[in-house]
Amino acid sequence: MGRAPCCDKASVKRGPWSPEEDQKLKDYIEKHGTGGNWIALPQKAGLRRCGKSCRLRWLNYLRPNIKHGEFSDDEDRIICTLFANIGSRWSIIAGQLPGRTDNDIKNYWNTKLKKKLLMSSLMLPNPFVRPPNNINNYQQYLLSSPSPSSYSSPLPPTLRLCDNNYPTLGASRSFTSEGFSNISTNLFNIQPQDQGLGPMQNYQEKESPLIMFGGAGDDQQAASSSSYDEHFMMFSNCGMNNISDQQKQVNLGVSSGDHEIVSNVLDQYNMSCVEEIKQLISTTNLSCNSNLSFFVDENKTVRSEEEKVLMYY
DNA sequence: AAACAAGTCAACCGCGAAAAC
DNA sequence: AGTTTTCGCGGTTGACTTGTT
């Protein structure tokens, strides 16, 4: 036996709203408010509509100060950053964008922004590639890049999205996607067979700057305490399900120390995106069940990982 | 010009949470 | 304290529009 329907579907009108219905609903709510009862409202307002339908119509279309039309670059950036952090929590994201509705943002993400993001990810150079020594302005370096983008990126170019289920780097043998929004930001070149070897062995050899936000347990400690240097940084306390409180404390301690380390390292690279990354770190709630992983590597095999991104989408 | 494909977005659905009883 | 009702959310649908062949 299923749930009782909220209204008699046979007697209510469905489909697009007519201007007359809109006016009736608007007039009623402006005069009486919603009365805290959407189910009873349509009858009182003289509408042959389901209460849920009225609520949706009001919230998404009729209520005052709704903003329609193009999303700005700032709005794009807010949506992308929040999505990377909290996933498809549209109502929360909408809360940060006055005048926008969760439905609008969800549609915008699904139909446009996701693709826009992907295209910009494929077109822009890897911003974590260390600029040549004679270039001390990273913005300049990007502008002189041989692969300029015809797309405008809604994100700082540091953020590239891919499926968290793809093999992650060797540091992450205890890294899991449990409870993780299915988007994380990754750029890495580690092979699946390298997983489980531990972080330092792999990355020191490559002599590439790698900054990783994410990981847990041994990996995190190893990266943070034993041999961090300019080649490898880690910041996170993610993936800490099923471990002892004591271990959690260790990890949390490690990650709070890393924040400063990461900031210092980012400062060294003189990149235009540094402030955005710092912002991302500071706004990310790294709890046991939520995390942000962020892998960056200057290795030239980045392109193949981006093709995986394409497959995912 | 017609047929088809792809994109868009308003609206619907069903579920879990919260509130009311 | 347990049950029922309502709300709010995220995923999905499908009618309509736009683009392509």
TrEMBL record:
Protein's cellular compartments: Nucleus
Pfam families named among the record's database cross-references: Myb_DNA-binding
Nuclease listed as a keyword: no
Keyword terms of this UniProt record: DNA-binding, Nucleus, Repeat, Transcription, Transcription regulation
GO terms, molecular function: DNA binding
UniProt domain Myb-like: residue ranges: 9-62, 63-113
Keyword Transcription regulation: yes
GO cellular component: nucleus
Stretch forming the signal peptide: none
Domain of life: Eukaryota
Principal cellular location given in the protein's record: nucleus
PANTHER family: OS09G0431300 PROTEIN, TRANSCRIPTION FACTOR MYB36
Protein name (database record): Transcription factor DcMYB4
Top-level taxonomy: Eukaryota, Viridiplantae, Streptophyta, Embryophyta, Tracheophyta
Gene: DcMYB4
